[in-house]
Amino acid sequence: MINDAAEKKSDGVRAVERAIDLLQALNRRPFSTLHDLHRETGLPKSSIVRLLRTFEAKGLAAQSSSYGTYHLLGRVKSLSSGFHHEPLVIEVAEEIMIDFTKREGWPLALALFDVNAVVVRASTIPHTSLSFLHSSLNMRWSLVSRALGRCYLAHSPANERKILIEIAKQSKNPEDAAAHDSAAIARMLKQVRERGYALRDPTIESRSSTIAVPIFDDERLVACLGLTWITAAMSLDEAVDQYVPQLFEMTDAISRELAKRSARQPLSPHPPQDDRAFY
Q1: DSSP class per residue in 61-94
Q2: Terminus of the chain with fewer CB atoms < 10 Å: N or C?
Q3: Is 113 helix (H, G, I), strand (E, B) or coil?
Q4: Architecture of domain 2-80
C-alpha cells in the first residue's frame, strides 16, 4: 500500500516536471512545431500532444491551424503574476546600457518579441535629455518598419520569419503595411543580415534615427538593442562608424554575462552568417 502511494506520488511529480519542461520549450521561440518540442524536451510526441491539449483547455497555449505550430497565449503570464523580476537579459543589460548613455549621451532601448511586435522593456531615456520622447518603456514597435523590429525579424530563424511576416500582413497597424511588399521585405532583410544591424524606415520619423543590433544567448535570439540619435546632430555614416562597433561590444558583453550566469560559454555572440532564406 505504501509503495503504491509512493509510486503514484512519483508519477505525479514526473507529470509536473514534463509540463514545466514543455512550457519552457514553448517559451524559447514564438512558434514551435511538434518536432521542435520533441527535440528540445525529449518527451514522447504522444505525451507532448496530451500536455498541449491541457494547455489549450486552460488557455495557456494554442495551435495555429495554418502552420501546424504551437505558441503560448497571454494567459500564461498569470503564472508569473506574483513574480516581479525582469528577464535575465534585461537585468544583465541595464547597467551596461546606462553606462553607455551617461558616457555618450544618446539613449538606448532593449526590446523583446511579443506576439506580433517587439516591446521596449528597458530604456535609458531617463538618463539623458537627448530624446524627443519622455519614455519608450512598453512601446510596441513594428517588425517591418522599426529598427528594433526589423533587427528581430531579420535574425529570427527562417521558418519563424515567414510566419511573423504573415502575421504582420494581418495587422491593422499602418506601419505594418510594408509587409505586403514581399520583394521590398526580402531586400530589407537581406541588407540587415549582411550589415549586422537594422535601421528604421526613415519615412516614419525623420527627426531621429535608430540603429539596432541583435542579442544572442548561446545561438538563440533573445532581444535587440537600439541606439536613437537626433538626425540633425549626426549623419547616418557617422553614427554607423562611431557607434555600431560600440553596440556590438555591448551585445558581446551581454552575451558573455548570460553565458556566465548559465555556467557555459557563448557559441556566437554575433548573428550567424548562413545561407538561410531571407524571406
Answers
A1: EEEETTTTEEEE-GGGGGGGTT--PPPHHHHHHH
A2: N
A3: strand
A4: Orthogonal Bundle (1.10)
pLDDT band at 274 (very low <50, low <70, confident <90, very high): very low
Assign 120 to helix, strand or coil. strand
Which grid cell is 249?
561590444
C-alpha span between 254 and 104 (Å, rounded): 19
CB 187 within 8 A of CB 198: no
188 and 211 Cβ atoms separated by less than 8 Å? no
* Residues written for the chain: 279
Distances (CA, A) of 24 to 14, 19, 41: 15, 9, 9
Beta carbons of 156 and 164 less than 8 angstroms apart: yes
Work out whether strand 69-72 and strand 108-114 pair parallel, antiparallel, or are unpaired: unpaired
- Is 250 a residue whose pLDDT tops 90? yes
How confident is the model at residue 264, as a pLDDT? 53
What's the pLDDT tens digit per position in 16-42? 999 999 998 888 777 888 998 999 899
Dist. CA 86–CA 93, nearest whole Å: 11
